[in-house]
């Protein structure tokens, strides 16, 4: 009988096949006492080396099939296998507690993944599946067992508590039609991979084990798993699949066309990016540029501040990838829900109102100086602009200008080239900035309206608290009036204005934004072509 399980949509599309309920092999990781700990440590080292070799061939394959996204994910897995933060505690546990290495790996992994999964930031939370994936690979190499027990050929839906990136790579050629997970975030690498590979995916599904082996349909567009569908459901989905294909084909035809309304008003559509792989997705989707490079993610993935060289290499790559198209790099926006231990930011009672964004950078001028040096040096390789987050006060702007001048002088004195045309932008994401936008406009080339935070601060609603979601709506008249005010200030002062919060993706607002005079919208890579399609069907009032 047909049963429908509801979840959260992660990757669009419709997949169908037989259900394969996958249980991760728990019996491999029972605790055992070992008497020869040096032998056990050697077993661990051998399995790590074998896993590195496996990963090198996965990396090779991922590079071919998935380009930068695949390369990025599996290179980070290789890094975990070289990271003393992972290796040392396992060795120490084997030595100090005389336990088998499977158990030590599982314990250390649990500790590490617990740390990640308790983070408020969804992106960091999502990193836990990568560590789990790597640990599982090592444990499997220790056991020599086959990982998946697929009993039949043909398309199948993987259903599991968690799905890790390696599952997708290993199963993609064996008929993987969709994935369904009980746990996992929309921002996880598994989710990113599924989207890149076009595999429909749903998470947060509380499935029962008795569905194993049954035929099912996964609807990644709404987030459902339909087990044992009836004939009418099957026919409906067959039709929907065809429609979807033709819709996607139609979207691809829009590549290279302008974002222009029927009555001739053209605007830019840029892409938001959290990483270099997002930049290649943005290019594939024909983005006009990168409207918001959230530079904090490079910091949040690490255990210490990245060096100037490391930042420079990343920014230069971003600039080169985009060629003559603009890349707007936002300086470090940490604090509130984007936090990690080396920032030393714990203990604030009210972190969203605490030392975030530009406040943190100005309290740590050397951090901002390093970042600005890297950005200016990279500006020589493309079309880079700098965007400052969480601006509220004119003294911040004065400090920023001083620091920029001092960095430029330093670079000039050292003979290090940079572009003379690096534009300066301010994020408008606080009521203070919205109200003062006519004054702040004098000191910048562009505004970027961050509707996520602007809504949070205007409406006094924690953006991560679902129970106040009703109030935290960017469509609230107060927020829309603030946006209109900012656009007017921008126009009056000849300053460009963009919207880069999630509201830019909401097509019910697009017409109003264009009518207000917004110059560009910056959205996730997958929204670029659908937004273009919508704009090309609009007539302004
Ligand atoms: C915003 O606040 O709308 C924004 C784009 O910045 P972030 O979501 O990174 O805080
Ligand atoms: Mg913000």
Q: Layout of SSEs?
A:
Layout: E1 3-6, E2 8-11, E3 14-22, H1 37-82, H2 84-97, H3 101-117, H4 122-126, H5 128-143, E4 156-160, H6 165-171, E5 176-181, H7 189-197, E6 201-203, E7 215-219, E8 224-227, H8 231-252, E9 268-273, H9 276-284, E10 290-294, H10 296-300, H11 308-322, E11 326-330, H12 358-363, H13 365-378, E12 383-388, H14 394-413, E13 423-428, H15 431-435, H16 437-440, E14 446-449, H17 451-458, H18 477-492, E15 496-499, H19 507-516, E16 520-523, H20 528-535
Parallel strand pairs: 3-4, 4-5, 5-6, 9-10, 9-16, 10-11, 11-12, 12-13, 13-14, 14-15, 15-16
Antiparallel strand pairs: 1-8, 2-6, 3-7, 7-8
Helix pairs in contact: 1-2, 1-5, 1-6, 1-7, 1-9, 2-3, 3-5, 9-11, 11-13, 13-14
The chain binds phosphoenolpyruvate and magnesium ion (MG).
Care to describe what's here?
The strands form two sheets. Strands 1-8-7-3-4-5-6-2 form an eight-stranded mixed β-sheet. Helix 7 links the parallel strand 5 and strand 6 (201-203). The termini are far apart. The chain has helices at residues 37-82, 84-97, 101-117, 122-126, 128-143, 165-171, 189-197, 231-252, 276-284, 296-300, 308-322, 358-363, 365-378, 394-413, 431-435, 437-440, 451-458, 477-492, 507-516, 528-535; strands at residues 3-6, 8-11, 14-22, 156-160, 176-181, 201-203, 215-219, 224-227, 268-273, 290-294, 326-330, 383-388, 423-428, 446-449, 496-499, 520-523. It contains 20 helices and 16 strands. 47% of the residues lie in helices and 15% in strands. The chain has 541 residues and is an alpha/beta fold. The longest helix has 46 residues, at 37-82. The structure holds phosphoenolpyruvate and magnesium ion. Magnesium ion binds at residues 429, 450, 452-453. Residues 429, 450, 452-453 line the site of magnesium ion.
